[in-house]
Design brief:
The complex is a heterodimer.
Chain A: H1 3-13, H2 19-38, H3 54-84, H4 99-261, H5 267-400
Helix pairs in contact in A: 2-3, 3-4, 4-5
Chain B: E1 21-25, E2 31-34, H1 36-42, H2 46-49, H3 64-75, E3 80-87, E4 93-104, E5 110-118, H4 122-140, H5 145-163, H6 167-173
Antiparallel strand pairs in B: 1-2, 1-5, 3-4, 4-5
Helix pairs in contact in B: 3-5, 4-5
The chains are: A mainly alpha, B alpha+beta.
The complex binds flavin mononucleotide.
Flavin mononucleotide (FMN) binds near residues 55, 64, 67 and 98 of chain B.
Amino acid sequence: MNMLSFGRAAKRSEAPASDEAALRAAMAQVSRVCAAAARGDLEQRILNIHDDGPIGAMQRDINHLLDMTDAFVREASASLTHAAAEKFYRRVLTRGMRGSFRHGAELINAATEHAARLSEQRVERVRLSDAFEDRIKEVVHGVASTATEAEATARSLMESAESTSQEAEVAASSAVDTSQHMATVASASAQIAGAAAEIEKQVEHSSVMAEQALAEAKRANEVVSGLESASRDITRVVGIINEVALQTRLLALNAMIEAAHVGDAGLGFAVVAAEVNNLATRTAKATGEIELMVETIQTATAGAVGATAGIATTVTGMHTLLAGMRRAVGAQGEATVQMGVSINRAVEGTRLVSDTVATAAEGSVQTQSAADEMVQSASDLSRVAESLMGDVDQFLSQMRKR
Amino acid sequence: MAVPTVSPTGRQRTFGDDEIIVSKTDLKGRITYANEVFLRMASYKEEELLGQPHNIIRHPDMPACVFKLLWDTISAGREIFAYVLNLARNGDEYWVHAHITPSYDAAGTLVGYHSNRRTPDPAALEKIKPIYAVLLAEERKHENKKEGLAAGQWKLNALLAESGKTYDELVWSL
Ligand SMILES: Cc1cc2nc3c(=O)[nH]c(=O)nc-3n(C[C@H](O)[C@H](O)[C@H](O)COP(=O)(O)O)c2cc1C
């Protein structure tokens, strides 16, 4: 079951006489196939090989050579075609190849191997570039967005600082106002305290005066009382005089009656008696008038007594009133002093507030300028980030080139 | 069509690592050349093979979808590698690592096909055998050959999709 038996069978069918013709035909076929192969046509083979001898061997060897050459060309072409398409797994199969064919195949494979490595490196480079690009873009975007955010923050900071500084200005001026008002109130309260002290002094003075008035009223009362007893003495004396006058008139009347009894002798006596009667009458009349006057005096005195008692009562009441007033004024003064202290403290506080506000205003002005700078820096940063991105893009496009 | 009627013996034949089994066909797959090693392994005489369809050495255990892929690939002008179990005239069998390529004339016209077969790597064979068994089982589920072929192709594609490899990558990875 092999070529040899087949070859022998074929040979057996050939006539010895045609050996030379057969040889010529075989040689022509070999020549044709080899010429075709030399032209690059590796499809031709010597077919129908029947000879078992050296001719057959030559025919088979030529086919074998062509097969090996054909195989090498197909393998090399396929491998290189694949390698060109970056399919480096397609290697030249060395199995079944020997000598120079194998060596050539191995060289091609080594080259493919190298190309594969380069390609891997390039792929890795591209991968690294991609990763780098992703990362750097992320960072740059992060920076850019941070810068944008910072800018916005700075802007709002600036705005709020501005409004703060305006508010601070208003607050500062109103603090100054307040502190001025406070100072005014303080001085007013000091004045009040002074006035209260004055009032107190006056009240004290008034109460001394009232006391004097009371004493004088008492004295007046005493004087009036003396007047009363004097008028009582007068009334008693007048009574005595009236009695004397009445007795005198009775005596005069008796004398006149006696004188009439004596006539003419008694005429002169009668005249004297009449005169005495006359005098007594006039005395009685005068005493009556005195009595009237004393009565008037007494009435007036009673009135004076009542009046002085009223004065005393009034003055006593006034005294009490003044004492209360003095207490009230004292308390008021105390309160006013207290108030002054509080107000002074308030003034201090207000000053502190206005100082603080001034500091705040200053701070907000500084903030404003800082924010201004920040806005500038942020936009600078954005620009830098952008140009960095451009550089990166350029760099990466260079990197990715073969 | 010289479809072999011989039933497989299960006996294995081998050839040398420094040998290649060569055959050429016309555009229809009829044999136009077979080298010495081919004749020896398949136990045919040259004149018995020339002009015969290549399925003359087809083994019944080979999945049809592999040959379908083979023809689709080479008729599209591309090479294909395949592990193929062949049947000798007497029913003996032999595994080859086949490389089938289109042949062009000087003008670049497709004139036929060519196949070089080398000794298969035993480890690769052990990997491909279960795959072929699966494909064959899939195909044999169907009475109708067309349906069987379609099922085999579907299964092959599913296996490739599962492995995440193209057919070429799979064969080269074995
Ligand atoms: C150049 C070439 C070589 C081939 N070699 C084989 C082979 O060694 N074994 C095989 O079974 N089929 C081979 N085929 C495939 C056959 O043509 C055929 O498709 C296969 O045997 C299946 O037969 P079927 O289509 O009749 O089922 C080859 C085809 C070509 C073009």
